């Protein structure tokens, strides 16, 4: 009984604080994500007032938060749009992998951490945070923008790549060899293909399971299906985020519209819990020794993400402002990077500073990413783009025929 009382007090006080921080952030026109993270740091391990009873609650809530963020993104698009965007973004996905995985691998080798650590750090710097980016797009009102499907395509390609990367990484860390890695890869590929086929071919049938006219049944049914599919996907070493996203893709028509309205408050609640838990699980005392290397790595790989998004948007004919929004929107790393680091540090022989470096790196990108994503909306940036466009036109007119 005492534990339950303490849990209620801790959760209630922290949620109340988050509500106040969210109001403050919107009053000053900034993203609430950095404030949620710092709240987690203040009350987590090594913080000002560590919370103990509510840690398990926030851990589960954080997983649900990522799942809800991704299913809500999936509800915005149809299966045909997903297939078209994935085909168009496949080359950009390859560029994304090369530009963002290689710096991490090279960084680990330069530090003398060995090739296994290089494989781990390559994954940490490669994949963007679907949860953070989904929250930023919603906060900035960009879900309907032309560049948003490009961003989502890159994220889905990354998540699908992680479905193949994580089993291989687990096999490498466990030392199971080529046969074990091949079996893990085959299971992951089979699972991804099955989930994609069911979502794309039988989406209309899935929608008929629910009634758009019964809000209570619709909420329970869609939420239950999403958590079920995400859990099964995770059990098969496929991203739970991919499973949740494909559930959203599979739903269509009035069911998808009404589900979006019903799930929005839950998404906002558990998304905030996700960011707080990230801070709660981080010990601020581990960050200072690796801050400078993490900052250098973050600057390099945030720049390569901007290039990735800019090139991907340019390939499909997005205007220059949209290209910048796509590039700057892809910078945050998050849940996958922490999962990868967690797998590595549990393995004997891996560089012990890797976890602290990954944590500091993710924090830097998660705090600065949402702030930098606002740059294309600032008047000075729009003025700079207009001046550049005018200069190019003058150069083109002055050039001889």
UniProtKB/TrEMBL annotation:
Protein localization: Membrane
Task: List the membrane topology term(s).
Answer: Multi-pass membrane protein
Where does the protein principally reside? membrane
The regions listed as transmembrane in this protein's record are 6-24, 33-51, 57-77, 115-138, 150-173, 179-205, 217-234, 240-259, 266-282, 294-313, 334-350, 356-373
Tagged with keyword Transmembrane: yes
Q: Is-annotated flag, keyword Cell membrane?
A: no
| Pfam families named among the record's database cross-references | Na_H_Exchanger
Q: What family does the Swiss-Prot or TrEMBL record give for this protein?
A: Belongs to the monovalent cation:proton antiporter 2 (CPA2) transporter (TC 2.A.37) family.
Q: Which PANTHER family match?
A: CONSERVED INTEGRAL MEMBRANE TRANSPORT PROTEIN-RELATED, SODIUM/HYDROGEN EXCHANGER FAMILY/TRKA DOMAIN PROTEIN
According to UniProt, the name of this protein is: Cation:proton antiporter
Which organism does this sequence originate in?
Answer: Polymorphospora lycopeni
